[in-house]
Each structure stands twice: as structure tokens, then as C-alpha cells.
What we know:
The protein is α/β, with parallel strands linked by helices. The protein folds into two domains: 1-72, no CATH class; 73-113 and 174-305, no CATH class. The chain is 51% helix and 12% strand. α1 packs antiparallel against α2 (42-70). The two termini are 26 Å apart. The model has no long low-confidence stretch (mean pLDDT 90).
Amino acid sequence: MLSFLPPPILGPLVFFLFGLNTLFWGALLYLVIPAKVLVPHRRWKSGCTTLMTRIAEAWTCGNNWGLRMTQRIHWDVQGAEGLKRASSYLVSCNHQSWVDVVVLHKVFNRRIPFPKFFLKRQLAWVPVLGGAWWALDFPFMRRYTKSYLEAHPEKKGKDLETTKKACRKFAGRPVTILNFLEGTRFTPEKHSHQDSPYRHLLRPKAGGVAFALEAMGGRLRSLLDVTVVYPEKRTGFWDLFTGRIRRVVVRVREFSIPEEFMRGGYLENPELRERFQNWIREIWQDKDSLIEDILARSAASLSATS
């Protein structure tokens, strides 16, 4: 354990370990990409995708090992028991920083299919990462703005069809789709600007979840609602690397997704849209209360030991 090192030394060391781990497994991933591209056989491509997914999971294991060797984090995780790699899930989570992604990988790696998220089509051209996302079958989507659709009504529905086509590659195998319902990271400024009715959350964007469910064509039947709390209110990558995050609380709740929400029609059916939004709001209200309870218990525990 290297957690005794002072932050000015620990931070760069952890950054180096994460970078080295990424370069090693990333290089292996890119060695497999030509085999997937050049051989036009469906089962061969599927095998290459499986191999690259194993590489991504090994990359996650490497990052987790780096955290164990350099950090003294108490992981308080409940609700992740009984999950299956052979099942498909839609994962929703509150969003405070990109450390959330590290936490989600830590909690779910090799328990459920490797998490993927919808990406804007333009991100396919991001150096290094774009190729890795494509190789791992992250679904790229094309979303048209409201003003664009008003000027080009013939494009209505084309964005969903394009995304559905991208999701067909998941047919016959389990998948996990990750969605941050708030659409952005929580900050007090954003919370105030939104006039959010929740104490610890921004307003959820139900449309993004509805879009994902319809694009996946009914393959996602379980929602894993994940609540991540950092009781010390330190959430940045540098806080993580320098050992300032000492406790992470994770609560996982599994919900069955109602059948009517998987059939689509969110935009066209106002009554369905209202029911769907109410369903999301209820989940979000419970999440907000859960965060309040976790923070209150943490504060009480800290007061008792001080």
C-alpha cells in the first residue's frame, strides 16, 4: 500500500499508473482492430468484439489494482449482488464528476456486460478513443436539433433509425447501456440555474432514456438505478489520485422496465410521455431522499467519532 505517500508524490504516481495501464491495454485493443475490420465474417467479427471486451475488462481490473495499491478508500456498496453477465441492463446514475465512471467500472466489472453509452456520431473521429469506442461497439447516434428538423421535416425519425441500426449489432448477446439522466455533471450553479426541485440532483432528462429504450428495441428489460455519494464532497480526479477520497457509497436498485415503455412512441404519445416522465421523477425523488439519508448518516458517524 502506497497511500502513506504525500499528495504531491501520490497524485503523479497514480496518474502514471492509470496512464501506463491504459497504454498497455489500449495497444492490445488496437492490435485486434485490423482483424475485425479486414475479415468480413460475422462470427469472426463477433469473436473479435468479445476479445476486445475482455481487454476492456482487463483494463478496468488494472485501474482497480492501481486504486487498491495507492488508496485507502472504504467502499460501501449495496445492491450489486445477484447481477448476471448474461443479462442486459440499462444503468442510470447521478453524475458529479468523471470519477463516477471509475466507480461504476469498479462496482460492475465482470458482474454485468461491459457498460457502453450512446455517443454523438462526431465523436467517432476523436483520436485514439474514437477507434476504441467503435471497436467495442459503442452505439453512435445522430441527433438532429429541433430547428434543423423544422427546416428539414423529411429528416424526422431518421436519427432514431440510424441509432437503431447501430444497436442491431447487440442482437443475440447481453449488453449494458449507461445513461446519466441529468445530462451533465452536478454543480451548485447548475442546480440553482435549473431551479431543481431536488436537493442533491439536477432535473432528469427522461427523453434520453426513452430514446435509448426505443433504439434498443425491447432488449433492455431491467433498469439499474445507481446512486453514488462521496461523503467528503470531494469528487474530482485529482482528489482521487491524491488520496483525498476516503469513502465512496454506492446503492444499486433494480427495476423492471414496464412493457409499454419499451415499445416506443415517447414523442408521438403525450399520455405515454407523461407516464414515463412520472416514472422517472418517482425514481429520482427516491434517489434524492436516499442521498440525503446517506449524507445525514455519514455526518452523524463523523460527529460520533470526533
